[in-house]
Write a structure and sequence with these properties.
about 15% strand; alpha+beta; about 60 residues; 2 helices
Length: about 60
């Protein structure tokens, strides 16, 4: 998926009224599962404050 498609998907997901009822771990997994891998090995996650964040390898694999 491209950045704009993932961004739209995440925005739709978090504006769904059921989003706030999910446990935090489930929400974190849902966001992490939409990480975008780039050819240079970067993993980008669209998250807080409607911004893109580059995953720090020290944080461990996305989705865990």
């Amino acid at each position: 998926m491209r950045f704009t498609a993932i961004e739209a998907d995440v925005r739709a997901m978090v504006t769904d009224p059921r989003w706030t009822a999910l446990p935090l771990q489930s929400r974190a997994h849902a966001i992490a599962s939409r990480a975008l891998a780039t050819p240079d090995g970067g993993r980008w996650i669209f998250g807080a404050h409607a911004r893109w964040y580059l995953q720090d390898p020290g944080d461990g694999p996305a989705g865990t």
